[in-house]
Amino acid sequence: MILFDRFVGMELAYYRALNRRVLLSGEDAKNLSAQEKGYAGECTYDRIFDEVGHGFVFVFRDVIWGLRAALRSTIV
Predict the structure, then answer these.
(1) CA-based diameter of the chain, in Å?
(2) What is the pLDDT of residue 48?
(3) Do 44 and 6 touch, CB atoms closer than 8 A?
(4) What is the mean pLDDT of residues 51-56?
(5) C-alpha–C-alpha distance, residues 34 and 62, integer Å
(6) Is 59 helix (H, G, I), strand (E, B) or coil?
(7) Is the confidence at residue 14, as pLDDT, over 90?
(8) N or C: which end of the chain has fewer CB within 10 A?
(9) CA 32, 51, 44 angle in degrees (round to 5)?
(10) Are 35 and 12 in contact (CB under 8 A)?
(11) Considering the entire predicted model, what is its pTM?
(12) How many Cβ atoms sit within 10 Å of the Cβ of residue 41?
């Protein structure tokens, strides 16, 4: 069961918009490329998971869990 759809992150949206307006510096072009590859990989993962089926698995896309922070606060 898919609970959230995948969306383009703010950083990728920023670099896409910036790329339309100016010639990106080497570092910005590298960041855009990394963001595009990451997003493409996430979409590929979603497509494969959709084809295989979800069964009884709940799919939380683009949800950031604060588990580490919660764990750190409980460990004294």
Answers:
(1) 50
(2) 84
(3) no
(4) 74
(5) 17
(6) strand
(7) yes
(8) C
(9) 10
(10) yes
(11) 0.67
(12) 10
